[in-house]
Design a protein that fits this description.
Layout: H1 10-17, H2 26-45, H3 63-83, H4 104-114, H5 129-144, E1 152-156, H6 159-187, E2 192-194, E3 200-202, H7 208-211, H8 216-229, H9 232-242, H10 244-259, E4 268-272, H11 278-285, E5 293-296, H12 306-318, E6 323-329, H13 341-355, E7 360-365, H14 385-392, H15 399-406, E8 413-416, E9 429-433, H16 458-461, H17 474-486, H18 494-514, E10 521-524, E11 532-538, H19 545-558, E12 573-577, H20 587-593, H21 597-602, E13 607-613, H22 627-647
Parallel strand pairs: 4-5, 4-6, 6-7, 7-8
Antiparallel strand pairs: 1-9, 2-3, 8-9, 10-11, 11-13, 12-13
Helix pairs in contact: 2-4, 4-17, 5-17, 6-8, 6-9, 6-11, 9-10, 12-13, 18-22, 19-22
Length: 649
């Protein structure tokens, strides 16, 4: 975790981490790419040199060879020309989505491993990068506070796949005690289980509601004891007869209705109102159904409201409706808000103690996961909020933010995207489990991918046994691993990088707050928990929500790449807050805009909010152009142009 020995000059080191907005490190980058390519060529030429050459110098003089080379060069030139129409993520003028340039280490690591094209589904196709992936998972686990020996994780194609795996695991954990109930009865074995409110009870004495409210830890203990109670072949056969994953929803539902006289409503997934749209896709794909997605309101800081969560759990309990999982967000996609996970954990403990209700707790830290590096000192210990504030030089973070990051250690599973605040190439998401035993609930054993007997870490090296994807680039693992080696997951590396983006975001926020754009006025959301700044422009003539939205849509059109041929000075994005998802949280904005709550609730298109993501660390380091001032000036011009178009001038 402590990483390589580095001088205590992270701000200076940061200048070497990136290619640079003007490719200032081009010579270094070229040398590293060339080194990676030459090393690969050397490896090929020394692999059984007795085989000789397949492509001869004479072949290179044949007409077909020349024609193929000419075609490749010509098409490459065309591709390069097209790519220049892409998005300038590297620029300090880009303040749009969660994109910036990648660390040079990650790009070089990806390029070097890409030449080998490893597939990390199993070690026989990726003997090096599978091990690197497991190392990366352990590094991320240690960063968030998991016990590396007890936890487990892997890389995915992105946060959506990682989130899907969390609910896949959570669903199978929820229904496992029910499968154990049938299996124990079929095998004639006696098993008891820990209850969430305390005490133990025989598994076969529990009704359906109690069976679906066993904590994860208790369910996994039950899993181990079940396998120890009878021969493995007998347990497997009985589980296949009594488990959801083997029988499927239709057959399983039929069996439950036959075995238990009082059927329960379908299980739900509780999510924050700010949850990513992928959650609806996930519950649809897993057959849970989008109607079973229960949204919890957020507070004025766009964080899940713990009191509203408790009330939601109470209502579900009254209806005896099981909870598959509760999903909190660590770095929302719209506002970079960090849910108070520590307070959500308190709500879960209370639900177990007072209601006998248990559920899986997942932290969707796809965006904000790497911010946990801010809380780590060089020796791996935790930094206090006061120590971090001394480093940032601003009034950030507060104690609650630090407690939220520390609470990640108690989440049952976590999603983290290295290709977001990890600054590595796509695709590189990550999924972490606090208790590695839970992966057994989703395991599959294709015989052609089984590791050889006696291979060290055999099961771990066979990733395909436990993951949803059947193919994934080992190059991504190499990219993340090399970036972690150069930028440790603490105050010297990623902690410093994330800090600088927060400082830059606060600097932009301050510039917008102080901006004099008369007659236009900016209404800002609260200062961000990480580095996404949100705001709304208005004008005295914009007296209703429709005109406010039209003005901001016009600004967005002039400051985005969505308009064909657009070349904006600065690039932003926008989102929409809709009712009832943002009810309560949006009231201060409506008051400042002079818009009634009734008008907000009546309009299906909601409230248009402009959004600037600050992933450029140099804005917070005082290096380069003053993009905070430049952004405000460009925003003012966009306001004027958008209003003129609105008025038909």
């Amino acid at each position: 975790m402590a990483g390589p020995s580095l001088p205590h000059d992270p701000d200076g080191a940061m200048r070497a981490w990136l290619l640079g907005p003007r490719a200032e490190n081009a010579d270094l980058f070229e040398r590293l790419v060339t080194e990676a390519l030459r090393d690969h060529v050397f490896w090929r030429r020394n692999h059984h040199p007795e085989d000789g050459f397949t492509i001869t110098e004479a072949d290179k003089r044949r007409p077909g060879y020349d024609a193929a080379v000419a075609t490749m060069k010509q098409e490459l030139l065309g591709l390069l020309a097209e790519l220049k129409q892409g998005v300038p993520f590297f620029s300090g003028r880009y303040k749009g989505h969660m994109n910036y340039e990648q660390t040079m280490a990650s790009q070089i690591g990806y390029f070097a491993a890409m030449l080998f094209n490893p597939n990390n589904v199993a070690v026989e196709g990726s003997p090096v990068t599978t091990r690197l992936e497991l190392k990366v998972a352990r590094q991320l686990a240690e960063m968030v506070g998991y016990d590396p020996a007890a936890s487990w994780g892997h890389l995915t194609g992105g946060g959506t796949v990682a989130n899907l795996q969390s609910i896949w695991v959570a669903r199978n954990l929820l229904y496992f005690p029910l499968a154990a109930y049938g299996t124990a009865a079929a095998l004639g074995v006696d098993l008891d289980v820990a209850l969430p409110e305390g005490g133990r009870a025989p598994i076969t004495s529990l009704d359906l509601w109690r069976l679906l409210n066993i904590s994860n830890d208790a369910a996994l203990d039950l899993w181990e004891r079940l396998w120890a109670a009878a021969p493995a072949a007998d347990v497997r056969a009985a589980l296949d007869e009594h488990s959801l994953q083997a029988q499927g929803y239709q057959e399983y539902g039929r069996r439950i209705a036959h075995a238990f006289p009082d059927p329960l409503p379908p299980g739900v997934v509780i999510v924050s109102a700010t949850a990513h749209y992928s959650w609806e896709k996930i519950v649809r794909a897993l057959g849970i159904g989008s109607n079973q997605l229960v949204y919890v309101p957020v507070d004025h800081r766009y964080r899940i409201d713990p009191d509203a969560l408790w009330e939601t759990i109470g209502r579900l309990t009254e209806r005896r409706q099981p909870i598959l999982a509760c999903v909190t967000v660590n770095g929302t996609t719209e506002e970079s808000a960090v849910d108070r996970l520590d307070r959500v954990l308190e709500v879960r403990e209370r639900a177990e103690r007072e209601l006998g209700v248990a559920f899986h707790l997942h932290s969707d830290s796809a965006y904000g996961g790497y911010a946990a590096a801010v809380t780590r000192a060089a020796d791996g210990s935790r930094r206090t909020a006061e120590q971090i504030r001394a480093s940032t030089g601003i009034d950030w973070p507060d104690e609650g933010w630090v407690r939220s990051m520390e609470a990640l250690a108690q989440a049952d599973s976590i999603t983290i995207d290295p290709h977001k605040l990890g600054y590595v190439p796509y695709p590189a998401g990550a999924f972490l489990l606090r208790d590695r035993r839970a992966r057994a609930l989703v395991s599959i054993d294709p015989p052609y991918l089984q590791p050889a007997e006696g291979v060290e870490e055999g099961d771990d090296l066979f990733l395909g046994k436990y993951i949803f994807e059947g193919s994934k680039p080992g190059a991504a693992a190499a990219a993340v691993w090399l970036s972690h080696q150069v930028l440790p997951l603490d105050e010297r590396g990623y902690g410093h990088l994330v800090e600088r983006t927060v400082v830059g975001a606060r600097r932009l926020y301050g510039a917008l707050r102080e901006a004099d754009l008369d007659p236009f006025r900016l209404v800002l959301l609260p200062e961000p928990d990480i580095n996404i700044v949100c705001y709304i422009a208005t004008h005295p003539a914009c007296a209703d929500l429709q005109r406010v939205n039209a003005l901001n849509e016009g600004i967005y059109a002039r400051m985005s790449l969505n308009t064909p041929g657009a070349q904006p000075e600065y690039i932003i994005t926008r989102t929409r807050f809709t009712s009832p998802m943002y009810d309560g949280a949006v009231v201060p904005l409506l008051d400042a805009l002079g818009v009634s709550e009734d008008a907000w609730r009546e309009r299906a298109d909601g409230l248009v909010v402009l959004r600037s993501t600050v992933m450029d660390p140099f804005l917070g380091s005082g290096a380069g152009p003053d993009h905070a001032r430049g952004f405000v000036e460009a925003l003012g011009r966009a306001c004027e142009a958008a209003y003129a178009a609105l008025e038909g001038v």
